[in-house]
User: Fold this.
Amino acid sequence: MIKVGLTGMGYWGPNLARVINQHPGSEFSAACDLRPENLERITGQYPAVKGYSNFDEFLASDVEAVMIATPISTHYELAKRALLAGKHVFVEKPLAHSSALARDLTSIAAKQKKILFAGFTFIYSPPVIKVKELIDSGELGDLHYLSLSRVNLGLYQKDVDVVWDLAVHDISILLYWLGEMPFRGSSFGRACVQEAKRDVAFLWLEFPSGVVASNEVSWLSPQKMRRTCIVGSKRMVVYDDTEPVEKLKIYDRGVDFKLPSTFGEFQLSYRMGDMYAPHLENEEPLLKEMTHFLSSIETGTQPLTSGEFGTKVVEVLELLDRTAQAHQRAELDEVIAR
Amino acid sequence: MIKVGLTGMGYWGPNLARVINQHPGSEFSAACDLRPENLERITGQYPAVKGYSNFDEFLASDVEAVMIATPISTHYELAKRALLAGKHVFVEKPLAHSSALARDLTSIAAKQKKILFAGFTFIYSPPVIKVKELIDSGELGDLHYLSLSRVNLGLYQKDVDVVWDLAVHDISILLYWLGEMPFRGSSFGRACVQEAKRDVAFLWLEFPSGVVASNEVSWLSPQKMRRTCIVGSKRMVVYDDTEPVEKLKIYDRGVDFKLPSTFGEFQLSYRMGDMYAPHLENEEPLLKEMTHFLSSIETGTQPLTSGEFGTKVVEVLELLDRTAQAHQRAELDEVIAR
Amino acid sequence: MIKVGLTGMGYWGPNLARVINQHPGSEFSAACDLRPENLERITGQYPAVKGYSNFDEFLASDVEAVMIATPISTHYELAKRALLAGKHVFVEKPLAHSSALARDLTSIAAKQKKILFAGFTFIYSPPVIKVKELIDSGELGDLHYLSLSRVNLGLYQKDVDVVWDLAVHDISILLYWLGEMPFRGSSFGRACVQEAKRDVAFLWLEFPSGVVASNEVSWLSPQKMRRTCIVGSKRMVVYDDTEPVEKLKIYDRGVDFKLPSTFGEFQLSYRMGDMYAPHLENEEPLLKEMTHFLSSIETGTQPLTSGEFGTKVVEVLELLDRTAQAHQRAELDEVIAR
Amino acid sequence: MIKVGLTGMGYWGPNLARVINQHPGSEFSAACDLRPENLERITGQYPAVKGYSNFDEFLASDVEAVMIATPISTHYELAKRALLAGKHVFVEKPLAHSSALARDLTSIAAKQKKILFAGFTFIYSPPVIKVKELIDSGELGDLHYLSLSRVNLGLYQKDVDVVWDLAVHDISILLYWLGEMPFRGSSFGRACVQEAKRDVAFLWLEFPSGVVASNEVSWLSPQKMRRTCIVGSKRMVVYDDTEPVEKLKIYDRGVDFKLPSTFGEFQLSYRMGDMYAPHLENEEPLLKEMTHFLSSIETGTQPLTSGEFGTKVVEVLELLDRTAQAHQRAELDEVIAR
Assistant:
């Protein structure tokens, strides 16, 4: 049993608290929050947990691992101090508010020989894992493109825009599935309700292997969508996370190109085969993620969602932010005379 | 009764033939096609129709109006000859393969005092008309953004890519709804199955009023989608054309921004109200379009989908093509060091 | 090419006309209707067809087969006269308004050595055929029960109630799938809008093999449903005919009973496996039905939907009508004191 | 704050525990279960709760109200002892395993001047309440019929069949909505997996006002359905409890009967109007039910789901059981000669 402490008891923290308490491999022994009411709620619900309002005192306790669910802008500072205090660290996504800082955390962890774990829960969810298997086994053939939609009404974040809040999930999934970094990206969107902070965005990414991806994210959409379409040369997959069951549908569909015969025109043939929805296990992703964090600590091996992985995700976010600015500058040149 | 002739009896032409024959205001009197088997099929089905394999002889008949459903690259030449022969002309979308040619057709029609009608059937469909009313009446409030998806498996076109084949519909709908031209656009996509001809594309458009739009089009998608989301400050609409009924859902949902109080933080309030699906009349869009074409001829007034309207749609297609090329050139500069 | 004549050009007749005309094995040569406007519409659309307003003159023509799409109460009389005139006969469902009359038609056809074909189009539709294969191959295991819903708003019939209009389809499908007659049935319903004619009904059937079936039919339902659930011990199937694709979903799900161990309690284990939607061919059922009618004539073999089959369907309808009356009589006895 | 005790910590009890603990009007002070492991789980999670393995000692504690979530066959005995010990009592549905016992409990509660509350949670859920309002306000017009489906795979109960487990919900909803008892019922079903205990059933009920209802319940269905269709003369409603939002859809649809004109035939007109999905509040039904239980205790007024109400539900279950037996006896008489 590894002694685990948690800091940040706002929107997401209570979910981590539940899992630390529930997991047979961890002992929930300390919690830290600046707001007394948050702290009391947790220590009331988990009487064995010692509460701290001071982060240094919290670090001075006997916890071996620290989980951080505070606002993004504080991730770097808190994670750094925890690593330097000799703790293993789990940081909620994104790892830090810049890739330079994320990279710095990664090297501190390496020097300290501690596990740095980036909390990308979707990487531990059964449908996302199943798609990874389908891609790696070659069952989908060559990947053509992916289209990902993650839209709903709210919840507006105070410190980041919709790209850093929602697209961060899709980017982590893409990097996990494809195993490569995009070499080019582009973003487009609008700040509709608040000034300067985009609540709707459309993103494009191009990868060295040729595959391209589009990602639509919005806090301002009447219907909730969590829909990802993965188009390969052999199979196509629709992953709909709003479905209670049958989240994955695998289609034996495609278009095959036949070289022109001696007489002439090329031919396309349409393949319209069966659809298949594999049964997926029901285990909670958050619990699987916790298991992976704890076993990384025990075995001393890098987790799937390592500091390096978390740094790459932030690099892609920064790439997309740069192109958003580039678009602003191009405005005058591209105006069309009508 | 206006005597109407039809040229082009391939994939779409037979639908126009049915409507010319069925409409009480038109008399289907002549048909022209280079392929004898196409011509025979039509004259067999409509014995009163005279068949021509020569376009000049077809134009020399007593038809007053000519409907053109031939390949896009022939639109300009055939429409021009028909207008110069004194016929009213209906040209299937897009009007021509360049905006310069489309503009030329428009001015020829003006000089000849004949109607030039661009065949954008969706503009005559009940849900598209209803959304136009909702926008113009102010019921949706200020428009924030639109997201349009038009994807399915096939049907690959020989002469154009997926943008000219499918996005042309969405662009025509956008121009009709918004009543303004985009001042900037961008496109991104991939030619997955054939070389050089994109079968999947993601488009962005920005309009002077501030509204932005995204459009996803694909010939290579396992599920058919015809989904358009229109987000306004007062109401949001989802228009799903694959639904047999309830194609339009109007949501009383939104996020309202409240100015900060004297003590500080701004506040957002989420509005989660009722959904409402208006009953829409069942009339066939193609029949309504035909009625509008015939009444434009009779009254001598410009149709909704005039030559000018059709020219603007081609201008937007060209804008999107230019940005696709711009992206190609930018490739080396934007590579990210990893 | 078999010369085919058609009588009855009301709601359904024009569909048969189209198929007779379109099918390569039939020549549409004669049509008969009492209403001159119906007759003119058909002879106008199919100029090669000779029109008759007198049924005897129609039978005196050189047609070899007669298709009957007139009101149900006329089926027996017209079919009998056609058979006695030496024609093969196709009668729209149900075969006649009583099983005695249907049986009589069947024996007349046998004596005349002519084909009597009952027009149950669903028996020729790809999903219904596929389910038959799944049942017969044993892939579903032992059948437990079936639940069939066929509801929508309208179309009220003038001469029959909702059971004879809609349940007739489900009964024909059940008899085809199960290959056995129910030994008991029950029905329940209400005449909501008109007096005496039920517009909603719930039917139950029990079969000798043990399988039971429920059927809900309604002309008075806000949403259209065409949903059939087939529950077997090995597999379960949902057949939804309103789906444009994936009409059949086959589930590897079930509950297995394990005998009690020495220590006691029985155990149930739940099987939650994959779902699979086979691709189904796209051929039009009506066209397949026509092919089967024509090949029955040519080979002199009994069709799937023979006179005998059509008689059995009417027997089941009569059984259900009897139980509806039985219910009425039982009313007073079963009243519960409250 | 009312001191509340809970007995029965199996499948459902923990949900009641959570609500007793969470509700501001109740203090969770005692728990009773025969299985030590169940008891320890609850007292571990709620350290302030005192655990009892003896029901008499539990009743001797200072709890003012007792909530019972034990197997159905124990409801009567435990509720009676609790009432006689002077406690207010909440019994999970159904109130008892016979209407005579349920009636006895009701009169004991009356004599003891204690609240007897039958735990029908759906009666406190926002969509069920909204439909009640629609019916009572006359917005739906005269009710024609209701069709209710409640099917899924599992969960098989040990002590009751699917009617007593699932239909009990629908019967409680029907009695609440209609405010009248059925005067006749019928049931049909099959015990597919286990002997003698039905896992699928189809029920019919007829009410004095003329309205009829059908209810399909199954533990052996591949897809989960929680669908209720309410057909009135003015409006129709579909209540789908599996929908995450828009559980209620209200249709302005119907068929209107027009008296025959002087010239003859009656006419039906179809009304196809708008659909409307009211926004429903999000409050948890279990929490609302708890609030109602506590306020009934405080005010001394009968709850909506009183002992009398719970007795009526059991009466309907018994009526349906009787008709299932009646069917068995009728078997030989109704056999059809084939």
